[in-house]
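Model it.
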Amino acid sequence: MSKLIYLDNSATSFPKPDEVYNFMDSFYRTKGVSPGRSGFDAALETEEVVNNTRKMLTKLFNGGEDHNRLTFSYNATDSLNLIINGLVEKGDHVVTTMLEHNSVLRPLYVHEQSGLIEVTYVPFNMEGYVDPQDIKSAIKENTKFVIVTHCSNVLGTIQPITEIGKICKDKGVLFVVDGSQGAGSVDIDMQASNIDVYCFTGHKCLMGPTGIGGSYVREGVTIKHTRAGGTGVRSAYKGHLEEYPYRLEYGTLNLLGVAGLYAGVKWITKEGIMKIHEREMDLWERLCNGVKQIEGVTTYCANGRENKNPVLSFNIEGFEAGDVGTMLDVDYNIAVRTGLQCAPLVHVQIGTFDMHGTVRMSIGAFTTKEEVDTAIDAIKEIASLRR
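Modeled.
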């Protein structure tokens, strides 16, 4: 078996840096105890790593002065559910986009179907970007918040969050960003972009493991409780604690996940986020240019590298996306993502919903030029088989 060519980094980054594997192993072997619940040395040292991770992420996002408002969860989906469920009230209106992942769409749909809220879904343009003026036009008197993906996991388009954030601030509505594909891949400045809540996952561009994510909630934003449980402190208090980080953390943290995230953030900071990004986009440009020259291949919103992440969605005429994915896997040992990529409304708008989606290739920090060239050749061979 030849070496796996992994082009599914939008699902999860792989492999991770050696620093992440090594730190997780050594940390969990020597300090794998519950943080914030005991006063012995190992627990205090563990708590220090947790707090330092909060501080690093708060700085990375430029969230604010209080690093305790950086809270951990299972992943971005978990945090988005906590935030959405903790914000909506009967009669609210929410603005979102056709670009969103099901981690946003499904919680909103549940409340929409129950009659609790109304939702407006703003379309994107032919290049894959939402027009901030369309967001502005969708805002009503009862709009509670606008929620937008930082970067499309299907099209790779980085949305104009700074412009949208300014509109939200001017209109007096909250701005929530799903940073699943943005955190660790491009620079983020919550304060400059007027972002009230930024949700993230650790296992993608932040180079951490699965099972860890979180959010940063700006001071002055109130998220009501939708869960309750242990916090390790003030156990006699009957209700769930109001202060951060306990307000949005329930039970024992995924300590091993936090440790991996700590090492991952240190690695991308050392390497330079935008340096990694530019190298990935060089490879994306090579992939895109090569694929576009193949007869019978259609790419989607792949016009130029500006405001993009290294994601390419395409189809081959005469083939189901799933079948192309299987051939790439079985015949070429290339791992890709096919189907609707958990973002069905994107496919409704680009016309691929009834075609069962697209083939998606996503480049990562460890992708090589040789792997990209092999992928192009593989697509060319498959396309030559069409009738």
